[in-house]
């Protein structure tokens, strides 16, 4: 079988029953060994990657729609569609599918024989077709029952659809509808409602094309007005013909385009307003209706985009000062709908769409529209602006920066957006919330571009803080001139909360720009005035702002906070909150807990020195006592830097205090062979600086004085013993170095560094002065000391040197100097 390549777009149906574009490529059909059958293959036209590989299953129902679409289901909830650029390509692939399934290519759907019972299969063999009753008034009830009974079975549903299609049954039914309506035959109208609703659930494109034709669609809507569950019929046709008006803001010369727009609007109305909400079981039955609307919209956008004269006229009238407000209102609403339809385009087509709008001057046009007084027009312009920002924020940034070179700050597009956010009249500030989201997208460094020639982040943020930030912060500064907010109503508080949210975002994502602005304009002091607001959400926003600043651990910010005593309003808010256990209480405590845990020394000292008396009685949490302890430890280290240095040394060299750890390590010590010790068990790096600082040894000397008595006893015991061969010495000293002295020969005086605790001249040397009892490997001075407790007197060891046996040594205090 030869491959035929055709240009197609691949779509999949998502969970929201919307079609997602998976890319454009070329389709072919051929035998795939892995699937053991003929398959459809789509390879991307951009890089040749495989977009789709689907075996043509003999039992899968394929549907051909609108001459250029093939739709099918791969699994229970996985629908696929191929949209062909040319009808010829669609016909050719359709023939291949029908050839594999043994179907006539003239049909628009292949049979789905999944889920029918054995009884239905037997019925299928005995009765190949479904016979419809005559289309007469007295047979409507029979027809309604037939439709209802056929819907649960895929096989019967397919047979019913073929029968309705082949016999031209829909037009006959609509003629009966007109008769029943004239006769006011309510029972017949109710039966027709059930029949037409059932035909929708047959989910067949060929039937939809008949029902949605110009001569039939209004009668179809009329049938759906007479719901038996409602006491009175709906008036959908009256709305569509009298209330809903089609306005050509720009004349559309193409009659096919005009007809497609009318059809799409009415079908969308049927889906959203006329048809009852589908049940869980019926939802998948309307997938073809979703597809019909979706592809109609794609077609409309494509036809409009190709009409250059239409778009040129549209933007010319939008920007023309002579255009009256009503006309401009209609133009803006059309453009908004146009942008909404564009969301159905595939990515590369959507790129071309927005680039076309940009080239035609959509941003200057929006600037004019946003300056209008009409709230509805401004709302539509905001929606269009949101499409542009979400699509390409860099394009908007580039425009406003170029604009700033020619215009004053007051009329810049971005300042107009800020002013509309500030002046939103909606009590819930719905528009302000939307605009704040757009501003945050524009000032977000994450979506800013950096090229070799320029850095968008630097340029735009410099522009924003110079030309726009003062407009954004104006309501905040105007409302915080006193110790309490000058206006504390709900709407003002909501607006200030939005502004604070954006400023907090800037603190997190901008560096020196926001830092300079906060410190130079004293913004944090003004923000903390809002902690006195009666609205808790606003006070919490102010606390969150300060918490983000403290979280940066930036000393510039810290000095600014201390210099201006900016913890004072926080302490006041904490005390005014009293003993209430609420979010305010927790947020303030968390802020101080962060300072304590992160050991921010400057802020710890500032808080304790200035606010301790106000906080010392708070004992239901240990945060403030912990801060005081941190402060005292800090002062102690400042008063005694030598002790601080010693603590650092001991801490860095594992001064152990856990008894279990000591016992484990001591056991390891005595199980270690002496040969290993000679190679240096502990490695201590040399420290020439510490060797020259004799004062550093004073704390060690004091530490060792407690051992002098025991050390003297050890000296006497060892003096009486003649050490020959390898025995267990009372003290084991091990240093890293190149010089090694064995136990059998006394070390020279040069083996020990002067001033070290192991040398005769050092304080606390004691037993260490006996050369016959010490094994030393030395390179540098003593750095760490580990002292073990005296609870191991019951341990005794014996060693044999292999030649002579000595009497076991009496128990002695065992000490170890190690790293």
UniProtKB/TrEMBL annotation:
Serine/threonine-protein phosphatase 4 regulatory subunit 3-like central domain sequence ranges: 143-633
Pfam families xref list: EVH1_PP4R3 (PF22972), PP4R3 (PF04802)
Residue ranges of domain PP4R3 EVH1-like in the record: 5-101
Gene Ontology terms: biological process: DNA damage response
Biased segments, Acidic residues type: 671-681, 788-804
GO molecular function: protein phosphatase activator activity
Biased composition (Basic and acidic residues): 703-718
Region of interest called Disordered, as start-end residue ranges on this chain: 671-819
InterPro entries xrefs: ARM-type_fold, EVH1_PP4R3, P4R3-like_central_dom, PH-like_dom_sf, PP4R3-like
Compositional bias segments (type: Low complexity): 730-756
One term under GO cellular component: nucleoplasm
Protein family according to the UniProt entry: Belongs to the SMEK family.
Stated role: Regulatory subunit of serine/threonine-protein phosphatase 4.
Protein name: Serine/threonine-protein phosphatase 4 regulatory subunit 3
């Amino acid at each position: 079988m030869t491959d035929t390549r055709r240009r197609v777009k691949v779509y999949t149906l998502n969970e929201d029953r919307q079609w997602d574009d998976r890319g454009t490529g070329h389709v072919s059909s051929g035998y795939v060994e892995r699937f053991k059958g003929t398959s459809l293959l789509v390879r991307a036209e951009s890089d040749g990657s495989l977009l789709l590989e689907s075996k043509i299953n003999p039992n899968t129902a394929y549907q051909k729609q609108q001459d250029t679409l093939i739709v099918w289901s791969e699994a229970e909830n996985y629908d696929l569609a191929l949209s062909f650029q040319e009808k010829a390509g669609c016909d050719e692939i359709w023939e291949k599918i029908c050839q594999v399934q043994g179907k006539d290519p003239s049909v628009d759907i292949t049979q789905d024989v999944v889920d029918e019972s054995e009884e239905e299969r037997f019925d299928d063999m005995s009765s190949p077709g479904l016979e419809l009753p005559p289309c007469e008034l007295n047979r409507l009830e029979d027809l309604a029952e037939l439709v209802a009974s056929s819907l649960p079975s895929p096989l019967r549903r397919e047979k019913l659809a073929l029968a309705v299609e082949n016999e031209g049954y829909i037009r006959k039914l609509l003629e009966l509808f007109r008769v029943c309506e004239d006769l006011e035959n309510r029972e017949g109208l109710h039966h027709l409602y059930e029949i037409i609703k059932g035909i929708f659930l047959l989910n067949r494109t060929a039937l939809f094309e008949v029902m949605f034709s110009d001569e039939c669609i209004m009668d179809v809507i009329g049938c759906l007005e007479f719901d038996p569950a409602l006491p009175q019929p709906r008036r959908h046709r009256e709305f569509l013909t009298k209330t809903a008006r089609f306005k050509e803001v720009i004349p559309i010369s193409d009659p096919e385009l005009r007809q497609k727009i009318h059809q799409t609007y009415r079908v969308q109305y049927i889906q959203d307003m006329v048809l009852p909400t589908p049940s869980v079981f019926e939802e998948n039955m309307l997938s073809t209706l979703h597809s019909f609307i979706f592809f109609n919209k794609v077609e409309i956008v494509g036809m409009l985009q190709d009409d250059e004269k239409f778009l040129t006229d549209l933007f010319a009238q939008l920007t023309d000062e002579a255009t009256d407000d009503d006309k401009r209102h209609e133009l803006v609403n059309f453009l908004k709908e146009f942008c909404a339809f564009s969301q159905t385009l595939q990515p590369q087509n959507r790129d071309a769409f927005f680039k076309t709008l940009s080239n035609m001057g959509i941003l200057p046009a929006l600037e004019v529209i946003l300056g209008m007084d009409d709230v509805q027009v401004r709302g539509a312009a905001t929606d269009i602006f949101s499409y542009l920002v979400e699509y390409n924020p860099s394009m908007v940034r580039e425009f406003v920066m170029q604009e700033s070179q020619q215009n004053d700050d007051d009329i810049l597009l971005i300042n107009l957006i800020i002013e509309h956010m500030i002046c939103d009249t909606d009590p819930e500030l719905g528009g302000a919330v939307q605009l704040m989201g757009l501003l945050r997208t524009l000032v977000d460094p994450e979506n800013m571009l950096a090229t070799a020639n320029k850095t968008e982040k630097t340029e735009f943020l410099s522009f924003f803080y110079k030309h726009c930030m003062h407009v954004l912060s104006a309501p905040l500064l105007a409302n915080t001139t006193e110790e309490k907010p000058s206006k504390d109503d709900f709407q003002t508080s909501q607006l200030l909360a939005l502004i604070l949210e954006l400023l907090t975002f800037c603190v997190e994502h901008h560096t020196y720009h926001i830092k300079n602005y906060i410190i130079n304009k004293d913004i944090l002091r003004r923000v903390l005035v809002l902690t006195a607001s009666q609205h808790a959400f606003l006070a919490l926003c102010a606390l969150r702002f300060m918490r983000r600043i403290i979280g940066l651990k930036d000393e510039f910010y810290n000095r600014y906070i201390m210099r201006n005593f900016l913890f004072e309003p926080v302490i006041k808010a904490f005390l005014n909150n009293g003993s209430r256990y609420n979010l305010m209480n927790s947020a303030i405590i968390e802020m101080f807990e962060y300072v304590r845990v992160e050991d921010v020394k400057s802020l710890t000292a500032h808080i304790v020195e200035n606010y301790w008396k106000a906080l010392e009685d708070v004992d239901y949490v240990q945060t403030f006592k912990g801060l005081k302890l941190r402060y005292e430890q800090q002062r102690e280290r400042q008063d005694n830097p030598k002790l601080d240095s010693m603590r650092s040394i001991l801490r860095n060299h594992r001064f152990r205090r856990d008894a279990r750890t000591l016992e484990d390590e001591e056991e390891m010590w005595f199980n270690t062979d002496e040969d290993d010790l000679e190679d240096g068990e502990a490695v201590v790096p040399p420290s020439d600086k510490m060797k020259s600082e004799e004062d550093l040894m004073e704390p060690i000397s004091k530490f060792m004085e407690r051992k002098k008595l025991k050390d003297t006893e050890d000296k006497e015991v060892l003096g009486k013993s003649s050490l020959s061969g390898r025995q267990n010495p009372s003290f084991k000293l091990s240093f890293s170095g190149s010089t090694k002295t064995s136990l059998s020969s006394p070390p020279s005086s040069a083996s020990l560094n002067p001033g070290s605790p192991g040398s005769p001249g050092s304080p606390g040397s004691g037993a260490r002065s006996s050369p016959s009892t010490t094994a030393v490997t030395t390179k540098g001075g003593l750095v760490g000391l580990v002292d073990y407790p005296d609870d191991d007197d019951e341990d005794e060891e014996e060693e044999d040197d292999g030649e002579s046996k000595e009497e076991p040594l009496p128990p002695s205090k065992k000490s170890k100097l190690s790293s």
